[in-house]
Design goal:
This protein is about 40% helix and about 20% strand. With about 350 residues, the protein is of the alpha+beta class. It has 2 domains: about 90 residues, Hypothetical Oxidoreductase Yiak, Chain: A, domain 1; about 160 residues, Malate/L-lactate/L-sulpholactate dehydrogenase, NADPH binding domain (Ribosomal Protein S8, Chain: A, domain 1, 2-Layer Sandwich). Strands 2-3-4-11-5-6-7 form a 7-stranded mixed beta sheet, sandwiched between helices. It has a 3-stranded antiparallel beta sheet with strand order 9-8-10. Strand 8 and strand 9 form a beta hairpin. Helix 1 packs antiparallel against helix 12 and helix 11 runs antiparallel to helix 12. About 45% of the residues are buried. Bound molecules: nicotinamide-adenine-dinucleotide. The site of nicotinamide-adenine-dinucleotide has 27 residues, from strand 7 and helix 10.
Length: about 350
């Protein structure tokens, strides 16, 4: 394990992406999104993704320079085709459309297909919350990327189908709920494999449907599966996220013949003052947070945290002390950089 300062990592990631053919603007947006995921403590969506993103770019799964296309719209909603551009770019552009509509109509919605991997789902509702709006987002993986068993099953049938919601607070940072609907994100199983660690109990099953904590049982062969979080409840949300993201946008839902992994999504943005006086809304949110935090603690807990707080704390810590990168991830990043000659090599030799 090595520790690298975030500014250095941003430079390394952007250098490799640009060296591999992304535009300077795409490289800057994607590298910042990856390193921000590391800073927030979500290593599963950080630099570990870089080699895979470059492979996708090489195979044309991610289309460099693609522009979003509005297929249909009213004052409230838009149906958008991302033309398989970078998820981090298409996602941000589509959210701008939803935010703009919400600022005029009170609510703005976008249904998006052919968008490459978005990275952390929470980045997008957070864009709205930073501008004083609430937002919710449902994702699927364009019908491909099936890694989760349905509740009661032992074969992969669903993707991680995340749901992300954010609410602004005048008295502090937005509340951010950003969760996959599986018990553990697939990327975290990969991080555990690379770091030679086990995963927590009740997160994965092996090919026979037996509970296991060995990440290798998930990858196989024969391959196991992730479990939905919270049993039948997480499964129900995964199913609905798949439908709202995939069936509504035209990307399609989880199915055996889908092979191109991307993220289709539905985002809904709410301009709070159009519903209720912002001060009154804030007072209700603050009262709720204070009331929830006032509970006596359960055994083993030292504090009650509000969603979004763990990431902010980890960020403060990692901004100061650097980001830990495991050796296997580092080897893959270096190998990817070296495929693009001197530029990549010199980028990596900075460390
Ligand atoms: N693009 C995709 O297809 C895709 C697929 C899967 C996951 N993801 C991303 O992976 C990331 C990780 O997902 P995950 O399911 O592992 O998330 P997770 O299980 O780590 O849960 C994270 C959420 O729980 C909150 N939280 C954590 N500890 C808490 C505590 N003690 N008290 C209160 N709230 C707490 C966090 O603030 C955050 O909102 C997310 O950013 C998600 O969007 C993306």
């Amino acid at each position: 394990m090595r520790t690298i300062q975030h500014l250095r990592l941003r430079k390394i990631a952007a250098g490799i992406l640009e060296g591999a053919g992304a535009t300077a603007q795409e490289a800057a947006i994607v590298s910042d999104a990856l390193v921000d995921a590391n800073l927030d403590g979500h290593d599963s969506h950080g630099m570990v993704r870089l080699p895979e993103y470059v492979r996708w770019m090489e195979r044309g799964v991610i289309v460099i320079g693609a522009q979003i296309q509005v297929l249909d719209e009213t004052g409230v909603f838009a149906v958008i085709d991302g033309n398989w551009g970078w998820g981090q770019v298409v996602g941000r552009q589509a959210m701008e459309v939803a935010i703009e509509k919400a600022s005029k109509a009170g609510v703005g919605m976008v249904s998006v297909r052919q968008c490459s991997h978005l990275g952390r789902a929470g980045d997008y509702p957070l864009m709205a919350a930073r501008r004083g709006m609430a937002a919710i987002m449902f994702l699927n993986t364009h019908g491909a990327g099936r890694i989760v068993a349905p509740w009661g099953g032992r074969e992969r049938r669903l993707s991680a189908n995340p749901i992300a919601l954010s609410v602004p607070r005048s008295s502090g940072e937005p509340i951010l709920v950003d969760i996959s609907t599986c018990a553990i994100a697939g990327g975290k199983v990969r991080v555990a494999l690379h770091s030679k660690k086990s995963v927590p109990p009740n997160c994965i099953i092996d090919a026979e449907g037996r509970p296991t904590t060995n990440p290798a049982d998930f990858f196989g062969p024969p391959e196991g599966a992730l479990l939905p979080f919270g049993g039948h409840k997480g499964f129900a949300l995964a199913l609905l996220s798949d439908i709202l993201a995939g069936a509504l946008s035209g990307a399609g839902c989880s199915r055996p013949d889908a092979t191109r992994v991307g993220n289709s999504f539905l985002a809904i943005v709410i301009d709070i003052p159009r519903f209720r006086d912002r001060k009154a809304f804030d007072a209700d949110v603050d009262q709720l947070v204070e009331y929830v935090k006032s509970s006596k603690l359960a055994p083993g807990f030292t504090e009650i945290l509000i969603p979004g707080e763990p990431e902010r704390r980890e960020r403060a810590h990692r901004e100061r002390d650097g980001i830990p990168i495991d050796e296997e991830t580092w080897r893959q990043i270096h190998e990817t950089a070296s495929r693009y000659g001197i530029r990549g090599e010199s980028v990596c030799s900075q460390v």
